[in-house]
Amino acid sequence: MSAENGKPSSGVLRRILRSLGQSDRRLLLLSAGMILLAKLCLAAAPRISGQITDMLADMAQGGTLDGTAFFRNCLLTAVLFLFGYGADGLVGRNMVRISERLVRQLRVRCQRKLCAATLGFLDAHPTGDLLSRVSNDMQSLAASLSSTVASLLGHAVLLAALLVIMLLTNPLLALIYVAVIPAGSALLLLIMKQTNRLFRRQNEALGRLNAIVSDTYGNHLLVKAYGCEEARQKAFEAANQTYYETYVKSRFFSGFTIPLSVIVSAVSFALICIAGGAMLIRGSLTIGEFQAFLFYGNMISAPLSSLSSSVNSIQTGLTSAERIYELLDAPEEPAGTPTHTPGSEERAGGIEFSHVQFGYRPGEPLLQDISFSISPGQICAVAGPSGAGKTTLINLLMRFYELWGGSILIDGVDARELPRAELRKIFGLVLQDTWLFDGTIAENIGYGRPGADMEEIISAAKAAQCHSIIEKLPEGYNTRVGGEKSILSEGEKQLVSIARAILSEPRILILDEATSQVDTRTEALIAQALANIMKGRTAIIIAHRLYTIRNASQIVFMTDGSIREIGSHEELMARKGLYCAMYESGSAE
Ligand code: ADP
User: Fold this and answer.
1) If you classify domain 429-505 with CATH, what class do you get?
2) Which atom of ligand 1 has the smallest separation from the CA of 388?
3) Which site in 86, 254, 282, 562 is 20 to 30 Å from 95, CA atoms measured?
4) Where are the domains positioned within the chain?
């Protein structure tokens, strides 16, 4: 992708234009027209004010002053300057509106995409990278659109108009600018290239610095436990030193840009004075034209020095836009063609895996020909060593990923024929990594069933054995949880997520075996809560400790993506196969 090598492609500009609303496209066109007109006015104004000077000089030498023409020129100069500079304010306001409306809309689309993107895409992109697309890249796109586009266009138009008008007025004097200014600009460009390289290195060093700080403080227990303070400190100091050096160097070089522009305009001013003065004496130049040229000298150096920095800033903005559009192009979970409308059929909770094949990466099959079934109300445990494919079975059941072959039937209906939202409502998930959103406990439980009232939430919490724990919290159900630091212990969080699953009244419960890092009292509470929720429901348990699944009605034992043994605990023990060996070795997995 071209954004990765730092050069945005031209297609992104078209996409930005297409993303703008109809009225914003019109506003953009209007603004561009205004810029064009304003800069032409600015280029013409010195010429007219030069004519005023010529009239006055003529009068001083005994000529007569045409009062009407004099006042008309005065008025025209004032209007041209006023509109020329005043339009900048109006255009600036328009551009801020256009760019902010664009990023507001893009942010919404990104957020929607993040919810709809396939897990494969999300897995492949670090969270920090996605976050930075939605925040930093949006900001840089907006900044570049709102300020730089208008100034780039304005300066380019002004530069062209000034050169044309100067060449028309006096080609010889114009040539002085044409010779001096590009030489100065080339020097300026050289400095800017150097500073840009340093700015990039400075930003990288800052990124590293931030990463070290957040890593160190985010994992402060780990850092202390392993005594890595010294190493972390050294890494921090190294990044800090690089940041310091690149910052000082970049400021040193960028400090030359303003003096250099001043020198360029001073040199051209001096040359114009000498050459223009000589022409004035010889009578080939009027005093008004001479004055206009001095004015042009002032006007021309500003757009030249800012043109190159504008180009850079626009390039950054376009690269950001490309990163945003890449996110917006992320593949979405296919909607499929749901042919089955959920209705009055018996919601029993039977599951059948039939010749299921799947892999996360093309050409690397993981599950080969998985077939087994779970009867309604049965508790089925999936066991096997780490990496056997247990979690993958659940990912497929929930249709987080698409099958390569075979099918999964839920109560006799192919999962692909069910609308995805309906399919996911069938399941209640209680995972080992409990996730609580930033919000109150009541809200966290309430996610189980949108629209549930407080009474239902409390009764779910009671069934999940966490009502009395929640009541003891300072703000009860209104206590805020989630985020990095939570006042709930791991086991208590597990109970809250069980309450959420209970509230959702799932047809089938999926359980990643409860965490082992809880105290015995909480473990007993969790066991009771799970017994409550499993009552009368089909449940699939991903087993990490074999001794906890002895009572399951069926155990599916997997290794390397294939089912090796299937049966009850007693049957598998009697078979004296892999399960039995693993059970007897007392291995955790
Ligand atoms: P288990 O739950 O039995 O420990 P998993 O089903 O999580 O095993 O993983 C099975 C294999 O698939 C492992 O080799 C794992 O590295 C790989 N895997 C799991 N999730 C992903 C993923 N999102 N992308 C790519 N490979 C994955």
Assistant:
1) alpha beta
2) 3
3) 254
4) 11-328, 344-426+506-589, 429-505
Nearest atom within ligand 1 for CA of residue 561: 10
Structure tokens at 489: 């212990």
CB 464 within 8 A of CB 418: no
What is the C-alpha to C-alpha distance for residues 275 and 291, in angstroms, rounded to an integer?
Answer: 13
- Please check whether residue 511 is in contact with residue 428, taking contact to mean a CB–CB distance below 8 angstroms: no
Burial per residue of 532-557, b for 16 or more beta-carbon CB atoms within 10 angstroms, e otherwise: ebeeebbbbbbbbebeebeebebbbb
Q: What is the DSSP string of 372-401?
A: EEE-TT-EEEEE-STTSSHHHHHHHHTTSS
Residue with tokens 């294939």: 562
Burial class (CB in 10 A: 0-12, 13-18, 19+), 420: middle
* Residue with CA closest to ligand 1 atom 21: 360
Identify the residue whose C-alpha is closest to ligand 1 atom 13.
387
555 within 8 A of 568, measured Cβ to Cβ: yes
Q: Which residues 6+ apart lie within 8 Å of 439 measured at CB?
A: 480, 481, 482
Chain segment 115-157, per-residue pLDDT in tens:
888 887 887 777 767 887 888 889 888 988 888 888 888 888 8
Pocket test for ligand 1, best of 118, 367, 386, 391 (most atoms within 8 A of CB): 391
Q: Whose CA is nearest to atom 11 of ligand 1?
A: 387
Q: Is residue 354 within 8 Å of residue 374, measured between CB atoms?
A: no
Cα of 61 from ligand 1 centre, angstroms: 94
**pLDDT score, position 4:** 42
pLDDT score recorded for residue 106 = 93
Closest CA to 333 of 118, 109, 113: 118
Task: Say how many Å lie between the CA of residue 572 and the centre of ligand 1.
Answer: 25
CATH of domain 344-426+506-589: 3.40.50.300
Ligand 1 centroid to Cα of residue 327, in Å, is 24
The CATH homologous superfamily to which domain 11-328 belongs is ABC transporter type 1, transmembrane domain (1.20.1560.10)
CA 312/CA 189 separation, integer angstroms: 11
In this chain, the answer to whether the domains covering 344-426+506-589 and 429-505 adopt an identical fold is yes
Cβ contact 49:77 at 8 Å: yes
Distance CA(301)–CA(279), nearest Å, equals 23
Query: Which residue puts its alpha carbon closest to atom 15 of ligand 1?
Result: 387
Q: What is the pLDDT of residues 409-436, one digit of tens each?
A: 988 888 888 887 778 788 888 877 677 7
β-strand partners of 508: 427, 538
Mean pLDDT, the chain, as a whole number? Answer: 82
Torsional sign, CA 566, 568, 573, 579: positive
Letter for the amino acid at 104? R
Integer-rounded Cα Rg, in Å, for the chain is: 36
Residue 44 tokens, joined: 């013409």
Ligand 1: residues with CB < 6 A are 123, 360, 366, 384, 386-392
State which ligand 1 atom lies nearest to the alpha carbon of 395: 6
Reported as type and span, the H/E element at residue 271 is helix 257-282
